[in-house]
Amino acid sequence: MNSNNDPNYAPLRDVAQSPETTARYLADVQRVLLDIGKNLETLAHETRVHLRDTHVEGDRWYHARLRAMPVEKALGNVLKNLNNLTEGLEKSAYKRRAHDEAVVNTARDRKEKELERQRKKNPQPLQAAPNPPQQGAQSQNYDYGGPTSIYDLGRESA
Known about the structure:
Layout: H1 13-17, H2 19-53, H3 63-121
Helix pairs in contact: 2-3
């Protein structure tokens, strides 16, 4: 299928609709960019060596290095941007998968919230808790009448 036959043709529509194919596509793009990055690193190194070895008569030892610095910095920025781009591709693949999981979980979460709202509107009547059995006429209340420390235990009378 191509754009000549179908007016609704979009080349990456199928890729965008599935998180697995999106991840595969982004991984392929990332792989290509990493290969380009290796070539750019080699180019940056070779450029650095060549520019720093280029001396003009009357130069001091640091003049070639100073002339090379803007070129080295520009190539370094390109490499940094390329690394950020590849990290962004990986991150976007994860976020695409998380989006689909969130969509799937949204319907379930909404049902649970609706059930919770129904429970709040129509609460079940609470049953009274059974009284605990009394043990004879004496009940021990340790909070007020008992000893307060281990030193008070000997003072109690029988």
